[in-house]
Structure formats: C-alpha cells, structure tokens
Design brief:
alpha+beta, five-stranded antiparallel β-sheet, three-stranded antiparallel β-sheet, 10 strands
Length: about 260
C-alpha cells in the first residue's frame, strides 16, 4: 500500500469542501493497483499562529509513522510526496460503512448517561438545559486517547474518528500535532487519570525503543518530517506516559476541548 501511495499517479475526483484546508479526494494508480486517497497539498494550508507555515502535511505523515511504529494501526497509511498541486500528504481513504456506524461521541441529558459511556464535560445547551458530552468506553478509543497524548494532538474532534465497513476504527486529521509545547485538546477525556491499559503500555514501550535508536527507520523518518525540538518533545512525552503509567489529566493551561466538537 505504501508503494502505491508513494509512486502511483494521482487523479483528483473532487474537493472535500468541509475541510479547514484544501483536501482533495483522488484515485491513485500504480502497477495495476488502484485505491482512493485524500491528498492535502501544502499550498492549500491556511497559516496558523502557533504552527510553522507549510508543515501540516508533514505532521499528517508523522502521525502515521508513530501509529505504525508503536503497533496501534489507527492512522491510515500516509506518505509525503509530490502531487498535481505540489508536495503534500497522501492518505488512504477510509470507506464508510454502508450502514451508519454507532456514534462514538454524543451530547445527552445527564439522566441519559448510560453504561458503556464516559462523561467528558458537563454544560448547558442553547435552552439552558443541562447536558453531558460523552464518549464510548472502548479499548480502541482508549488507544486513540493514548496516541493523541503521544503526538500532542491539538484538535481531536469526533468527526476525526472513522469506522470502516468491518467496524475497525481509524483516525484522521493530524495536521496540528507534535508541537513541542503542551497543546492536547480532545473529546476523549473520559479516562483522564486512569491507569494505562496493558496493551497500550506495551505499545509505548515499543515506541520508546524505536525512538531511542537514531538509526531506526521511524526515527529517521521523523527527523525528516519534524523539527528537532518536536522530536525531542515526542520522546519526552512517551517517557512521561510510561513513568506515570496513567492517561494525562487536562493541564488547565490550554483549552482542552475542541470547538466545534465535530
């Protein structure tokens, strides 16, 4: 799949008009194989006050490198390459299921908080009625929360959580990750302060080993995709999670809930 994404010919089908930056759905063809992808050219990125201009595509790709190196397999295969509109990220398209998947994040009245859901935020709706932002209590979502803490995801919205036809969870839109300063902002705070699941701790240990080896493939890739202080901060976050052994708590120094939630 990575060979197809790296070397295939891209042909645009259309633009994803709800995206914050230019995102094109394309087909990619190579050696008799074809797939559908999302191509995000650097020239279509809007400048941000807190991230260097023209770096979002590289961050999208770095998120895949980290997810793959640790064994999470949550971020679809992603590469950084030239395309019809210049250099950009090319990510495998996640085909939605034919029948809509169950909601993973919701807003409900407090009395409707059901088993299998975790509360994130208590608030009031437009009619001043109490509501609770909730998400499902699932192992794959918990892994997303750990991954987000590792990559310092500054914008984990509910719409970035995608389920395919088989029911497998995928996560997308990682352009605002890997900042060296703490910026974690997510809808998945339901496990804050809880002990890390054993499987995710093992993945963190594997990732720490890979990152500590400057000659490893993932470490070399990340040095090409991110600035040196960002790679250093990434290693520091992995070590801190392992030392503490718990999901992070909101810091209070940064808005911790994205808006809008979806």
């Amino acid at each position: 799949m990575l060979e197809l994404l790296r070397h295939g010919e891209l042909e645009a089908e259309g633009q994803l008009v709800d995206a914050s930056n230019v995102a094109l759905r394309c087909t990619v063809s190579y050696a008799g194989q074809q797939a559908r992808v999302v191509y995000k050219p650097v020239r279509g990125e809007r400048p941000l006050w807190d991230f260097p201009t023209g770096t979002l595509a590289a961050r999208e790709t770095a998120a895949f490198v980290v997810s793959d190196a640790a064994g999470w397999g949550l971020v679809p295969p992603t590469v950084l390459r030239e395309g019809p509109f210049g250099r950009g990220s090319v990510q495998l398209w996640v085909e939605p299921p034919s029948v809509p998947a169950p909601e993973l994040v919701d807003v409900v009245p407090p009395e409707q908080l059901a088993e299998g859901w975790l509360p994130v935020l208590r608030a009031q709706d437009e009619e001043d009625e109490p509501v609770v932002v909730v998400h499902r209590d699932r192992p794959d979502l918990a892994s997303v929360a750990v991954l987000d803490a590792v990559v310092n995801n500054a914008d984990r919205k509910a719409s970035h959580l995608l389920t395919d036809e088989s029911g497998r969870l995928h996560v997308v839109d990682h352009g605002v990750c890997f900042h060296p300063e703490p910026k974690l902002r997510t809808v998945l705070w339901g496990w804050a302060g809880d002990r890390l699941p054993p499987g995710d701790r093992e993945r963190l240990e594997a990732l720490a080993t890979v990152l500590a080896d400057d000659a490893s493939g993932p470490a070399r890739q990340l040095r090409r995709l991110l600035a040196a202080p960002e790679v250093t901060a990434l290693r520091r976050r992995v070590r801190a999670l392992l030392e503490r052994g718990c999901f992070p708590d909101p810091s209070g120094r940064w808005p911790v809930i994205p808006w809008p939630l979806w």
